[in-house]
């Protein structure tokens, strides 16, 4: 049994913690509040006995929850002593990325250096910027947003430390998440309305293909990469099903949920900008609108081939997302 340290107890961190605990590993989960994963949420695909192909559902048992500031390298290093892997699964508030990510990224690199644990970071596709065609791990990082610049710099700093022989690291990138407790424009602005027979509205090309990554597959990929030294020193895309448009995803969600036929409309760009005058979350969406106004497709062939991970079906990911929303609505 080896020690694995996870920073962040959101959907990815929680799914990763439960999956590791289900396989008998020692798990230490670090958050500012000391909170831990909710039992039965995320990454619930049945296990077939292996990290790469399996899933597994574990409760909160076997997971040590620690309250600590992950941007403090000294504190984080103390909690990571003796660990084989350090997983970055945290996510600062959207509007605080430029201020909160740099010190946390530096602390994670320093902790990996001091502890010797391999650092595996959860990331997204913002660093690529606006591209033509599907994104692969070979797509150059050319961010066209502040958030993209932050993400690209985090990886560049970690990779530089890896190439200098100071740490061992890899980055795992996914697209918009599906799964219980996940947050995206679709899960917030469209899906709850669809489930109750209302009309969802989203600032997007509703018919453009878009990739949707299941949060349980992010956890499986993180663990598989951490365990295989041949995968270190590069980014990996989480195995992700064929892209679906917002309209097609909403339609399928309504069918799976037994809800009325999905109704979705496009929110005008001016409406988002007006909302941004009063709503911080809406304001933060503006600079990444390029992701939703044209095809936004992730190619995950490399990870599927190298790691043997097949993506969870979109239907299964949607079912879990729907169940999560209904559970939250009932509480």
Automatic annotation (TrEMBL):
<dbReference type="InterPro" id="IPR001509">
    <property type="entry name" value="Epimerase_deHydtase"/>
</dbReference>
<dbReference type="Pfam" id="PF01370">
    <property type="entry name" value="Epimerase"/>
</dbReference>
<feature type="region of interest" description="Disordered">
    <location>
        <begin position="31"/>
        <end position="54"/>
    </location>
</feature>
<dbReference type="InterPro" id="IPR036291">
    <property type="entry name" value="NAD(P)-bd_dom_sf"/>
</dbReference>
<protein>
    <submittedName>
        <fullName>Nucleoside-diphosphate-sugar epimerase</fullName>
    </submittedName>
</protein>
<feature type="domain" description="NAD-dependent epimerase/dehydratase">
    <location>
        <begin position="6"/>
        <end position="228"/>
    </location>
</feature>
């Amino acid at each position: 049994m080896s020690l694995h340290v996870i920073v962040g107890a959101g959907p990815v961190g929680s799914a990763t913690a439960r999956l590791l605990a289900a396989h008998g590993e020692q798990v230490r989960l670090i958050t500012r509040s000391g909170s831990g994963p909710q039992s039965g949420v995320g990454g619930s695909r049945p296990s077939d006995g292996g990290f790469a192909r399996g899933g597994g559902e574990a409760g909160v048992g076997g997971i040590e929850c620690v309250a600590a500031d992950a941007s403090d390298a000294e504190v984080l290093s103390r909690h990571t002593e003796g660990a084989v892997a350090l997983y970055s699964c945290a996510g600062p508030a959207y509007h605080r990325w430029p201020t909160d990510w740099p010190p946390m990224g530096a602390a994670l690199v320093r902790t990996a250096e001091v502890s010797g644990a391999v650092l595996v970071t959860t990331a997204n596709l913002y660093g690529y910027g606006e591209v033509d065609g599907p994104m692969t791990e070979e797509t150059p990082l050319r961010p066209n947003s502040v958030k993209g610049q932050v993400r690209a710099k985090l990886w560049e700093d970690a990779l530089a430390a890896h190439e200098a022989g100071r740490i061992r690291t890899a980055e795992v990138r996914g697209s918009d998440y599906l799964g219980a407790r996940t947050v995206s424009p679709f899960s917030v602005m469209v899906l709850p309305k669809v489930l109750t027979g209302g009309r969802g509205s989203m600032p997007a090309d509703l018919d453009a293909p878009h990739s949707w990554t299941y949060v349980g597959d992010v956890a499986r990929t993180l663990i598989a990469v951490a365990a295989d030294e041949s995968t270190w020193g590069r980014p990996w895309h989480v195995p992700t099903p064929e892209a679906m448009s917002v309209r097609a995803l909403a339609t399928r969600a309504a069918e799976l949920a037994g809800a009325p036929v999905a109704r979705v409309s496009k929110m005008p760009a001016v409406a988002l900008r007006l909302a941004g005058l009063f709503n911080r979350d809406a304001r933060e969406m503006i600079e990444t609108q390029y992701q939703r106004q044209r095809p936004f497709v992730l190619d995950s062939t490399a990870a599927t081939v190298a790691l043997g991970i097949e993506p969870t079906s979109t239907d299964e990911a949607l079912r879990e997302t729907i169940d999560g929303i209904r559970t939250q609505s009932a509480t």
